[in-house]
């Protein structure tokens, strides 16, 4: 029986980045993935690259950041919130990076 290989964290990060980069053409997101695993990879990538961990953002700032990669910023914002990668108070007055 072959020994099962596990990836070390740096290799996983490189692999994830490579997989996510296939979703982009000339810095723009071609389409929002429908498969949950692929969508999760994309959302983590967006949260890590577009939003600082210890900073609060207005909805306009979140939209502007997301518009740099895709025209449907409201769908991406909603996906990020549902995934817990962006959090906001009940009144929606600000956004922060989550998990």
From TrEMBL:
Residues 28-97 form the DUF2087 domain. Pfam families: DUF2087. InterPro entries: DUF2087 (IPR018656). This is DUF2087 domain-containing protein. It comes from Streptomyces arboris.
């Amino acid at each position: 029986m072959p020994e099962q290989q596990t990836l070390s964290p740096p290799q996983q990060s490189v692999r994830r980045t490579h997989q996510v980069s296939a979703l982009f053409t000339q810095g723009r997101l071609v389409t929002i993935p429908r498969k949950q695993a692929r969508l999760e990879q994309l959302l983590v990538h967006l949260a890590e690259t577009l939003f600082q961990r210890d900073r609060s953002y207005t909805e306009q700032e979140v939209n502007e950041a997301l518009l740099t990669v895709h025209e449907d910023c409201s769908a991406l914002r909603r996906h990020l919130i549902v995934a817990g990668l962006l959090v906001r108070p009940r009144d929606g007055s600000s956004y922060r990076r989550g998990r």
